[in-house]
Amino acid sequence: MTTRAGFVALIGEPNAGKSTLLNRMVGAKVSIVTHKVQTTRARIRGVALEGEAQIVFVDTPGLFKPRRRLDRAMVAAAWGGAADADIVVMLIEAHRGISEGVKHILESLKGLNPDQKVALAINKIDKVKSDSLLQLTEQMNSLHPFVKTFMISAERGHGVPALREWLASELPEGPWLYPEDQIADLPMRMIAAEMTREKLTLRLHQELPYQLTVETEAWEERKDGSCRVDQIIYVMRDGHKGILLGKRGETIKAVSKASREELEEFLGRKVHLFLQVKVRPNWLDEAERYSEMGLDFKDGNA
């Protein structure tokens, strides 16, 4: 049997469902999923197996109009991931149709190599009637020469197997890029930090999700098979620290418990998680923070 392997970039507006689709394809939670936009900061790769093919997904930050250095670095990472991939899948939401953001992405697609295979995946199909889906398909294909169009629901799994099978058949022939049991190429430290950041985002809602970052400072393997994980949550102001800790430390305790439980489930062993909150007013302008997120600090230049 001939093996195939290659990279697939998922692109789209924030909240289009890229992380949900990635997790559905891979069959494990490797990219954080929240209702907050712009939660995927790094180019997280998930690895899915389909027959004799290994599909390596590059989950890119949502494409939007960048305002801050961090935004610019995220958008540069997204297009970098698309340019390097064997196949690009553009994800749009069925009920939102051709928004200004979608038009912007379609325009930017023209900058890719003309031979680049770009497929269209219309997500959240359960939210609209079938006749409007057909109309949206025709409109999108008149605006860009997509090689294939898929109707999916990433959340429910509808149409996802067909998309995965097609991707597997289109990848170049060659040896697998990762060991069979490896689902993500992100170091475990970063996956653990993303899990904690997801819990913070869900817990804090509108209060300060974009003004904090989480780093795994230390990871210690213990003789009994468990591990100790020390993380620092950086916030920009003293007031943020109070919000994060909560009354009598209730917020940080709840976040720590939820994150530890998910990490234990992911690793299949006991985890001792310790969280610290530090005020760092200028973390958005520190090159080191960008490296931790898998982004290039230079890409944030105006």
Automatic annotation (TrEMBL):
It is a peripheral membrane protein. Residues 38-42 are annotated as: G2. It is found in: Cytoplasm; Cell membrane. It comes from Lentibacter algarum. Residues 152-154 are annotated as: G5. Residues 4-173 form the Era-type G domain. Its main location: cytoplasm. Belongs to the TRAFAC class TrmE-Era-EngA-EngB-Septin-like GTPase superfamily. Era GTPase family. SUPFAM superfamilies: P-loop containing nucleoside triphosphate hydrolases (SSF52540), Prokaryotic type KH domain (KH-domain type II) (SSF54814). The gene is era. An essential GTPase that binds both GDP and GTP, with rapid nucleotide exchange. Plays a role in 16S rRNA processing and 30S ribosomal subunit biogenesis and possibly also in cell cycle regulation and energy metabolism. One of its GO terms (biological process) is ribosomal small subunit assembly. It comes from the Bacteria. Residues 59-62 are annotated as: G3. This is GTPase Era. GO terms for cellular component: cytosol; plasma membrane. Keywords: Cell membrane, Cytoplasm, GTP-binding, Membrane, Nucleotide-binding, Ribosome biogenesis, RNA-binding, rRNA-binding. Residues 123-126 are annotated as: G4. InterPro entries: G_ERA_dom, GTP-bd, GTPase_Era-like, KH_dom-like_a/b, KH_dom_type_2, KH_sf_prok-type, P-loop_NTPase, Small_GTP-bd. Gene3D superfamilies: 3.30.300.20, P-loop containing nucleotide triphosphate hydrolases (3.40.50.300). Residues 12-19 are annotated as: G1.
